[in-house]
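Work Package 3 (structural annotation) set out to generate three-dimensional models for the target panel prioritized at the project kickoff. During this period the team completed the workflow that converts sequence records into C-alpha cells, so that structures can be stored uniformly alongside our sequence database. As a representative example, we reproduce one entry of 412 residues exactly as it appears in the project archive.
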Amino acid sequence: MFDVCVIGGGAAGLMAAGAAAKRGLETVILERNEKVGRKVIITGKGRCNVTNNCTLLNDLIMNIPVNGRFLFSAFSKFMPADTMDFFENMGVSLKVERGDRVFPESDKASDIVDALRKFALSSGAEVITGRAKELIVDNGAVTGVKTYDDEIINAKSVIVATGGKSYPLTGSSGDGYILAEKTGHTIVEPKPSLVPLEVHEGWCSDVMGLSLRNIAIRIEDTEKYKCVYKDFGEMLFTHFGVSGPVILSASSHMRDIKKGKYELYIDLKPALDEDKLDKRLQRDFLENSNKNFINALDALLPKKLVPVIVKLSGIKSSQKVNQITREERGNLVYLLKNLKLTINGFRPIDEAIITSGGVSVKDINPKNMMSKKVNNLFFAGEVIDVDGYTGGFNLQIAFSTGMLAGNSVLAD
C-alpha cells in the first residue's frame, strides 16, 4: 500500500512525486518508459526552455490562452521565480535569453531531467516501470491503479500526470484521457498546439530547409479582418509549409482553423520600412544595372528564395535591371514586406509540441488539483485542458500544477 501513486514520470509527475515524498508520504511513480523525463529531454531542441522569467502573476496568466485563470492558485504558490530557485538549488545554473526564456547554462535538457529525477528519488519516491490501464475506484474514491500487466498498485491517492498526445514516441499517447473518461470526467477534444502549419502555396517545398532569421510575421484572420498575432524571430520552410519558433507560437493563436481562414504575412526586411527598402533596392539595382533581374537579388535575399520572389514579383527573370520601372520596384518592395502564405491547417497532433484539450477544468478543483468527480484523484500537467504560448510557459504549468498536487494529496 502506497500513500501516493503518480502516473507519469514527466515534468509534472516528477515534481508532484518529489513534493509528496518530501512530506513523508510513501510515493511511487508508475512510468511506462524505462527512463523518466523522455519528453523533457527533447524540449527546446534538447536545450529545454525550463520556464519564463515572468515576474507578475497576471502577466503569467495572460500567456496561457486556454483556461489561464484556472491556474491562479497553482501559479500563486509556485511562480517562475520559484522554479528558477528550485533548479539553482538542485545545482543547475540557469540563464535568461530573449523573451525572458530561461535555459540551463549548459544548454542541456538532460541537466533538467537529472535534477527532477534527483528531487523525486532523494525525497523518497520510487519508480516502477509499467503502463496504467485503469483507475480503481471504490465508494467514490480512488484506491489504486491497475496496469496492463494486470498488476495492482494500491494507493490512498493517485496523481495522473501522463501528458497529452503530442510526441507519442515519448509515451504521451493520451492514456490519461482514457483513465479520466472511464471515471466520469469530461475530456475536451485534444487538438495540436504549438504546431507547424500546412500552407496552400506549393513554392514552400521548393525552398524546403531554408531557415529565415530576424524576420517578422503577422497572422490575419480573413473572416474577422483583423491581425491575431505578430512576432519577430526565426522560421523554417518545409515540404508541407512552415515551422520554426515564430510559427509554433503563431499556431496557438489560431482557433477553429480551416482552409483559407488565416493568412501568414512574412516581412523579410523588418529593419527597413518601405521607403528605406526602396532606396536599398535602388542602390542594388544601380550596381547591377546591366544584369538580368534574377541575378540582381543575391545581396538582398537567400539564394533559394530568389527564384520564388522573382516569380511572385511578376517581373521577368531575364529583364534587365535598368529597365525595371518605378511601379515594378514598388510592387517588389511591397512583396518583400508582405510575402503571403495561405494557411490550410495544422500538422498532425503527434508533431505538436503540446496538446490543447484534455481533462476539463470544470472537473478539477483549482485550489488543489483534485478531481471533483473522484475523491483523492488528482491531475497535473498537460493532461489538463490548459496550454500556454511558447517561451517556457507550458513547463511552468507542469511544475506549478505538479507541485500543488504533490503538496495537496492526503492533506489534513
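The two ends are 19 Å apart (CA to CA).
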